[in-house]
Amino acid sequence: MTRSFNVGAAQLGPIGRNETRESVVNRLLTLLRRGAAYGCELVVFPELALTTFFPRWFLDEGDESGIAGDTTELDSFYETSMPSPTTQPLFDEAKRLGIGFCLGYAELTPDGHRYNTYVLVDHSGDIVGHYRKVHIPGHETHEPWRKFQHLERRYFEESPNGFDVFEAFGGTIGMAICNDRRWPETYRVMGLQGAEMILIGYNTPLDYAPDPSQNPLQSFHNQLVMQAGAYQNGTWVVGVAKGGVEEGVESLAQSMIIAPSGQIVAQATSIDDELITARCDLDMCDRYKKTLFDFDRYRRPDMYQLISSTAAPRSLEGASERTPSSSPISLHMDAPTADEHVDPVDPPAQQPHPEASPS
Ligand code: CDT
User: Is the pTM of this model over 0.85?
Assistant: First the structure.
């Protein structure tokens, strides 16, 4: 029996700060119906697909010790249940059409925890599973030097759950959210559980304030990490953007569906609402899982112990997102520009880290 099925990546264009949930859900319903018309069994929406990317604003009256004061506006961006009254039509329509979906949203739990979450729903409208974002990028406190904030680390907790996979749509499906896609461990932990398709939603501003030299590489890095993740783990990857200029901030679009070979088989061409589809043969995963990436035969986990060790031997203490002025290395001055000639000389000897033990 073939394990091929059609998947849709439902890219979204910008969502305005004041756009109602009802309006957004109507946009999602349009894409869901388009997916059904194209014969999709699963339509994947991006990260935080119900709202604008609100971590770009400082929205409460707290300080470095956390959120405080009037949180009415902040709270308005979160769902306190799923389905919620405004998302129920999506679940109903999915069931009516016999099509599944994956939806990113901000989750506020009854006991006050805040997560950046994905929910996977099957063709009966039933929830298959949730995923809460593991790698939370950005910063915790208001940083006025930035053109816009990236306060994910203020508004979301790191997942306590990690990367699960789910038996659904005839295969083994995993989920990840945005920054997770840059980390090889994301794919590998799910690859080790047999993932055959990894669904990844993202909001990636083109302007990366801590190191603008990375700005022109956003598209390249997006492809690099997702294609590598797919190939090295013999899995399909469905990467879905919220792109375009949202509240003055331009974000990467270029949603794509990637085969276990690492090849891009479909890619969005717009920076707006757009559905791309591909027929994904889950059995293609075995071509890689049973040959080059036969984990049981070729992996050497005993050689990788540092990866799961919490004590990094040469920790880059404080090397998180710094303000330019507090950075101990010059992020902006030293990188050669494209037209500067760089001699192919040996790299300078590395300075020993102050905490490195003498050999
Ligand atoms: N949403 C999200 O995780 N975006 C990050 C931007 C990092 S800039 C602080 C990303 O990795 O694309």
Answer: yes
Å from CA of 148 to ligand 1 middle: 13
Q: Cα of 204 to ligand 1 centre, how many Å?
A: 5
Give dist(CA 107, CA 264) in Å, integer.
Answer: 31
Q: What is the DSSP letter of 230?
A: H
DSSP state of 191: H
Q: What tens digit of pLDDT does each residue of 136-186 get?
A: 999 999 999 999 999 999 999 999 999 999 999 999 999 999 999 999 999
pLDDT number for residue 183:
98
Q: Which protein residue has the closest C-alpha to ligand 1 atom 12?
A: 204
Give exposure, 100-119, as e/b (b: 16+ Cβ within 10 Å).
Answer: bbbbbbbbbeeeeebbbbbb
The DSSP-derived string for 50-97 is TS--GGGS--SS-BTTB--S--HHHHHTEESSSS-TTTHHHHHHHHHH
Q: Which two tokens stand for residue 26?
A: 């109507």
Number of neighbouring beta carbons within 10 Å of residue 76: 12
Q: Which tens digit of pLDDT belongs to each residue from 14-26?
A: 999 999 999 999 9
